[in-house]
Amino acid sequence: MTRSAAETLELLPTEAGTNVWLLEPFDEVVFDRTESRPFVLSPEETSVVVAAPSQVVADLLTSPGRAPQEGEALLEKMKGTEDAWRRKV
To answer: At 48, is the secondary structure helix, strand, or coil?
Structure first.
């Protein structure tokens, strides 16, 4: 049986104050430069796919609420740590 992401992450639904969004992309480009990392909080051995920082910034800057401010903050952090997140091609 395959568990949903919400079940695996033990997320609970809420009407307000959400801090996790589970979204289905409309284009496969969002999977470019993703990484699979171990999910250490899970009782079973599993991993999660992590989006590229540049994709996260793009998503935040075009999202509602406080997300654009979070995108700007992440972008500022990325400017000072480019070697940590930019892939060499």
So the answer is: strand
- Alpha-carbon distance of 66 to 73, in angstroms, equals 11
**Which pTM was predicted?**
0.66
Q: Is 1 helix (H, G, I), strand (E, B) or coil?
A: coil
Counting DSSP H helices and E strands in the chain, the numbers are 4, 2
Residue 70's contacts (CB-CB under 8 Å, 6 or more residues apart) are 60
Q: Is residue 36 part of a domain?
A: no
Chain segment 46-83, per-residue pLDDT in tens = 788 888 888 899 999 998 888 999 999 999 999 988 88
In a domain, 46, yes or no: no
Domain of residue 72: give its range. Answer: 51-81
Answer yes or no: is 27 within a domain.
no
Q: Is residue 2 part of a domain?
A: no
